[in-house]
Design brief:
heterodimer; A: alpha/beta; 20% strand; B: 427 residues; Peroxisomal Thiolase, Chain A, domain 1; 10-stranded mixed β-sheet; 19% strand; globular
Chain lengths: 437, 427
């Protein structure tokens, strides 16, 4: 991506510790955890009953009045993306038609969208109400369902749950008529999407992109699936804030969080022309996968070392140039060990020296939203020259030699590397550089 | 300077056949892949038929099928298509391709829901206040299968292909609804153009022929309900069209750096010369009636290829046979092609294949390659009554001989994501 450089001019975050870049950044500095009892549904039947839940969240106040009715057809994942997009455009100082239709200052045809998403679970009670109209002798009857049961689904039911609808609603609200994509590679989605979006800018397909990811797996189906995978911490329900412990010797699994982050990526010269003050330049991107990722019950970080190395080569930086790394740190011991090894493989000795951090202790695992939050945190860190503390890290787990700290650390941050991997073995990394003044 | 991208292998598992040449022969014979639904009892559904893959022999197609024991239905299709493409490209006899230079870029759908257990849970855990989550959790632990659940995430198809072919390069899955595999192939093109990969396995896989998928589309009134005339139910651009026919399948292609392909002596099937993408940014339920978004994708692809409308010899339409799509697409072709719109033949093989959703674009791109190779345009079958709103040359009912040097393929997704690719015939 050396043709046209892409810079990050806006950040929109919706996370359990804070909504909006200011609240998010302040919360990261305070080092508090937002993991608490799940209140979205009665989770007492599950071995893990805690999560990084958004506080009284709705997308309603983030959409124009004329679009408010549409919030009814948005799954929670979509609501998160829609809110994050509104926040991101405002933070970038761009006026889309969703912000003010009379003063639009973006070229819609040159505005792209790339929002990572996961498998969206249907609302159980919504579908259950329809399913239970098709019961014969106590069991579900497919013929009854076909005959009349399915008529009880709202006509737009399917559109609530398609993973492209995060991006589609955002394009409709804000008038993004350029390329629109949605990558569905779990936790790696946002890094993949942001890297791809920088490529769109480099090749001149668009001038700006709203890119990142969002997801909520805080529903019974999401908790069930992660439970079946044995990834969740099950012995810390009475101490939720301490439960998720990335890279820590006392780690015992992750917790599910919900949220995401979207960045505004913009062609550097365009940002400069309009006098924007970028957070960072998206200077490098790399992606990889691991053929062993198919064994989803076994820890796998998707050849993350390769993704990081490629991203650094793309950005033309070496290990000694890196000032901080933003890791995934799921809190699942086997995964964290492999991730730490991958960073060490990519950075060599520098991996022990460069300040490292992970957000999961504070917010849990956000899946497709995770990378969005990590990239947002990295962008903010560069502006504030502050590496956030890794909540709940106290002493390193065996095999972890990364330079982590419970406390936030001030440092001049000119180059940050962040990377992520999915269940299934895909990985991606992005390099952020301080923008040229 | 961007690298040139060529196609060197292709494979498909679809309702017409479980390999490439059989698919092509069926299309040229105008055969329909549409029949009554045998995947579940749809007899009381508004639409009782579909374009289903029948009699697929996974173990015969994928030698180490055991490795993929957990793979779901659409993933098995993808593996079969992938193995075909891999061999077709002679990559099984290639030592030069390093694992980290082999990428995967798919537009694969989600795995199908464990509908039987899912509904039984909703019934057995039902209370006056909706689903009793505690009871649901207890029963779900007893009934739900780990692998069935994990394989529903759409990125797992990438994982299976990576395992089968030992890939360590970039791996993406996108799910831009009905546009997904065309989008995947477009972005795969750029992975090679930018030099990130020497070869990319690209395409898509999907099966939404399950009770919830069918129900969702029925509620959107998107499906044809011609239960008495199933073989001719899919009628793109015809006045009597009444919706698409839900299909399933997978197609995988090998996209390759031209220099790399040449150096290893690969047979070049076609060159990818243009890609364009856009969003309608209109409504989640409707396409932009003016076809502006769709036209933008076509125009962008032309610009990327450095061509004008006069250079395009054939357009493989999205042509779903919904009232709206075919009218909007017709308008969009006119916007993008101007006076050339009435000259260029436009056909939709969905008339025979049905709509493979995420896998549609890749399957249709394969037909474009074969059309150029043989100099034959596949027809739009079931075309009987012309629609004043659809007044282009849709190559009705019979294949047509034509010299095809440059062709365009369109895919548009629910929600407004539009993608167009342009191919050039191999020299």
């Amino acid at each position: 991506m050396h043709d046209r450089r892409a810079v990050i001019t806006g950040v929109g975050v919706v996370t359990p510790v804070g909504v909006g870049v200011q609240a998010f950044a302040d919360a990261l500095e305070s080092g508090r955890s937002a993991v608490r009892d799940i209140s979205l549904f009665d989770a007492s039947g599950f071995p893990c009953r805690i999560g990084g839940e958004l506080e009284s969240f709705s997308a309603r106040k983030f959409v124009p009045k004329s679009y408010r009715k549409s919030v009814k057809v948005m799954a929670r994942d979509i609501e998160i993306a829609v809110a994050a997009a509104d926040l991101a455009f405002r933070d970038a100082g761009l006026t889309t038609r969703g912000i003010d239709p009379d003063n639009v200052d973006v070229d819609c045809k040159r505005l792209g969208c790339n929002i990572g998403a996961g498998l969206i679970c249907t609302d159980l009670s919504e579908l259950g109400a329809a399913v239970n109209t098709a019961v014969v002798d106590g069991t579900f009857d497919l013929r009854q369902w076909g005959e009349h049961g399915l008529d009880n689904l709202t006509p737009l039911w399917l559109l609530k749950y398609l993973p492209n609808m995060l991006a589609c609603h955002v394009t409709i609200i804000h008038g993004c008529e350029g390329s629109s994509n949605n990558i569905t590679c779990g936790d790696a989605s946002a890094h993949l999407g942001v890297g791809e979006s920088a490529g769109w800018i480099a090749r001149g397909a668009v001038d700006a992109v709203v890119a990142g990811g969002a997801e909520s797996k805080l529903n019974p189906m999401g908790v069930l699936r992660q439970s079946l995978l044995h990834r969740l911490r099950t012995d810390a329900n009475d101490a939720p804030a301490d439960a998720c412990r990335p890279f820590d010797a006392d780690a015992g699994g992750t917790v599910i969080g919900e949220g995401g982050g979207l960045l505004i990526l913009e062609a550097a010269e365009r940002a400069q022309q309009r006098g924007a003050a970028p957070y960072a330049e998206l200077a490098g991107f790399g992606a990889a996968c691991d053929p062993q990722g198919i064994a989803a019950t076994r820890p796998n970080v998707g050849s993350l070392d390769l993704a990081v190395s490629k991203a650094m080569a793309d950005a033309d930086v070496g290990p000694d140039d890196v000032d901080a790394i933003f890791c995934q740190g799921s809190g699942v011991p086997g995964e964290d060990r492999l991730e730490a090894q991958a960073w060490a493989a990519a950075l060599g000795d520098a991996a022990e020296r460069v300040p490292a951090c992970a957000l999961t202790g504070a917010i849990g695992t956000l899946f497709a939203g995770a990378g969005g939050a990590a990239l947002a945190a990295a962008a903010v860190a560069m502006k504030r020259n502050m590496v956030p503390g890794t909540v709940n890290f106290s002493r390193p787990a065996e095999g972890v030699t990364l330079n982590l700290s419970r406390q936030g650390r001030s440092a001049e941050l000119n180059c940050i590397v962040t990377a992520a991997y999915s269940i299934g073995g895909q990985s991606a990394a992005c390099v952020l550089k301080r923008p040229e003044a | 300077m961007n690298r040139r991208v060529v196609i060197t292998g292709m494979g498909t598992v679809n309702p017409l056949a479980h390999e490439v040449e059989g698919t092509w022969a069926a299309m040229l014979a105008g055969r329909s892949g549409i029949a009554p639904n045998e995947l579940f009892d749809a007899s009381t559904f508004a639409s009782t038929f579909c374009a289903q893959v029948r009699g697929y022999d996974f173990a015969a197609q994928v030698p180490d099928a055991d490795k993929h024991a957990h793979a779901g239905r659409h993933c098995r299709f993808a593996l079969g298509a992938g193995v075909q493409a891999w061999r077709h490209a002679r990559l099984d006899a290639c030592d030069a391709l390093r694992p980290e230079r082999l990428g995967i870029y798919l537009g694969s759908g989600e795995g199908s829901l464990d509908f039987e257990n899912f509904t039984s849970l909703l019934v057995d855990a039902w209370s006056d206040n909706g689903v009793d989550a505690v009871q649901w959790a207890k029963l779900a632990y007893e009934r739900m299968d780990l692998w069935r659940e994990i394989e529903q995430e759409s990125n797992m198809v990438c994982a299976h292909l990576a395992a089968e072919f030992g890939a360590r390069g970039p791996a993406f899955n996108v799910l831009t609804a009905c546009a997904a595999s065309t989008q995947a192939m477009g972005e795969a093109t750029w992975l090679i153009r930018r030099g990130e990969c020497d070869a990319v396995l690209t395409g898509g896989a999907h099966s939404m022929i399950h009770p919830l998928g069918t129900s969702g589309f029925i509620r959107l009134t998107a499906l044809s309900t011609r239960n008495d005339e199933v073989a001719t139910a899919s009628r793109p651009f015809d006045l009597t069209r009444d919706g698409f026919v839900l299909g399933e399948g997978a197609s995988v292609l090998v996209f390759e750096d031209y220099e790399f392909a040449k150096a290893r002596g690969a047979t070049i099937l076609a060159e990818v010369i243009g890609y364009g993408a856009s969003a309608d940014a209109f409504r989640i339920t409707d396409q932009d009636p003016e076809g502006d978004g769709a036209a933008t994708a076509m125009t962008a692809a032309l610009a990327d290829a450095g061509l004008g409308p006069e250079d395009i010899d054939y357009v493989s339409a999205h042509g779903t046979a919904t009232k709206q799509n075919d009218e909007v697409e017709t308008r969009a072709v006119k916007r993008a092609f101007g006076e050339q719109a009435y000259r260029v033949p436009v056909s939709s093989v969905k008339s025979m294949l049905g709509h493979l959703i995420a896998a549609a674009g890749a399957t249709e791109l394969i037909t474009c390659i074969l059309a150029m190779r043989d100099g034959v345009i596949p027809p739009t079958t079931n075309y009987r009554t012309s629609d004043p709103a659809c007044d282009l040359d849709y190559v009705p009912n019979e294949p047509r001989r034509a010299e095809l040097k440059t062709v365009m393929s369109n895919s548009f997704g629910f929600g407004g994501q539009n993608n167009t690719l342009i191919l050039r015939r191999a020299e």
